[in-house]
């Protein structure tokens, strides 16, 4: 089990490193937006939305998910790529549970899709990190509350002795 966890963390770290290297520049996004407006084709729309799915801005990530999900609903031929782009944007938005669900949908149709496997593992690890952090915060809060109760009890004890 420990080895699986270590591998899962390594996959997440590597996936996030690759993702950071693939972030689109402002110039590329502007160029793709102009091409999308000029051509008005599903391919141009996909290229723009897929690039947006790796943006560092939350509003662009939400817009990418909206566009890519729309392409899937409209029957765009590269639906798996659209779903992966949406999963990437959702991951970057911190919605690891939904990113994981999208990867699982991809893996049901393409079990050997390495890109989906990596994002799936990264999403699981991110969810587990979030849970660990919440438990740590709750534990620290409990310790703080117990200490405060101890101080109050000590003061009350001193006051009662007088």
UniProtKB/TrEMBL annotation:
GO terms for biological process: autophagy of mitochondrion; mitochondrial fission; peroxisome fission. The keyword Zinc does not apply. InterPro entries: Fis1, TPR-like_helical_dom_sf. The chain crosses the membrane at residues 138-160. GO terms for cellular component: mitochondrial outer membrane; peroxisomal membrane. Keywords: Membrane, Transmembrane, Transmembrane helix. The keyword Transmembrane applies. This is Mitochondrial fission 1 protein.
